[in-house]
Amino acid sequence: MNALTFDAALMERTGEPLRITRVSLRNLAGTDVVVRVKAASLCHTDLEAMRGDLGTPLPFVPGHEAAGIVEWTGASVTRVAKGDHVVMSWNPHCGQCFYCRRQQSILCQPYRSHMAQSFHFDGAPRLFLDDGARVHQLAYMGSFAEYCVVSQECAVPVPAAMPFDRACLIGCGVMTGFGAATNIAKVEPGSTVAVIGCGAVGLSAIQGARHAGAARIVAIDRAPDRLETARALGASHALCADESLVAAVADLTSGRGADCVIESAGNRQALRASVEIVRPGGQVVWLGKLPADDEASFRWGALMGEKRIVRSSYGGANPARDFPMLANAYLDGTLRLDEYVTSRITLDGINEGMRRLAAGVELRSVIEF
Questions:
Q1: Residue 291 — very low, low, confident or very high, per pLDDT cuts 50/70/90?
Q2: Which fold has domain 4-157+337-368?
Q3: b/e string for 304-340 if b means 16 or more Cβ within 10 A?
Q4: What's the pLDDT score for residue 120?
Q5: What is the pTM (predicted TM-score) of this model?
Q6: What are the residues whose beta carbons fall under 8 Å from the beta carbon of 160, sequence distance 6 or more?
Q7: How far, in Å, CA of 33 to CA of 39, rounded?
Q8: 166 and 304 in contact (C-beta within 8 Å)?
Q9: Where are the domains of the chain?
Q10: In this structure, which topology does domain 176-311 adopt according to CATH?
């Protein structure tokens, strides 16, 4: 493929707005897949990277939740072909390291070691400015752009009937939340599941719990509109995240607590609440995160009683298996995603979109190309 030049939203200095600029794609390898981005959604991880919280090297292109059409494939690519509709994953993996051999691709050693560089999975740059300066890709993707390049395992075919503006949601938030319930917690039929934080990830956890057959799904948030959406998507109960929460969950569960608690709010209060409202012998899945060097404290008594705590980053994702399943679930009406898309923008509107995301106005804004 000859050098391809296109528009991308570039983060040049921490704290400053993104700038739409021309970048070039070069140095493509045999396992690379170039995707023409059709839709990319805005996620809080993008915001964290832009604030400097993730230590992503500058300059970089944000974006890691996207769908599009395969434009080009390297000579060694066998999983997709030009013209395929794909959802992209931000978890390339080698398939051979200690963790990959144990089906823990999110812990892949090359994936983790190259993440700090934020170049392509092989550690080499693919994006360049006109002056030859190298451009980093957030999460091995950088999808706030007209095109992006990913490793072949990260371009997952989905049915062509799947709308791009909803397909893109599957690549991160939906997979993380839905998978937390089905792959990590392995929610059992008839159980009680509490979900703290009803953003896109939490709503997906609610839908995952519903899919798994939970009898009682308790949505917990401070925002009445989020709780209303949670009820529409399958929550049987809605509780305000205030000082009465522990007692309210106890009242719903004959004093025991929830069988499973999925936390997706990402703050100390939510983390503490998660271990307070789970029953003895129950499981807590943490999806939210604090800055890496922050500390959180807990009442020791709340940790007693054979409680299990798991921190999950991607909902136990197997993208080749899970992305098509989620797309088909949307198409057959069992997974609802229309409610997630609260605005649609162009690439030129990216800075206003990020401002609205930071203000908590949107569930998901989607850039349409």
A1: confident
A2: Quinone Oxidoreductase; Chain A, domain 1 (3.90.180)
A3: eeebebeebebbbbbbeebbbebbebbeeeebbbeeb
A4: 84
A5: 0.96
A6: 85
A7: 17
A8: no
A9: 4-157+337-368, 176-311
A10: Rossmann fold (3.40.50)
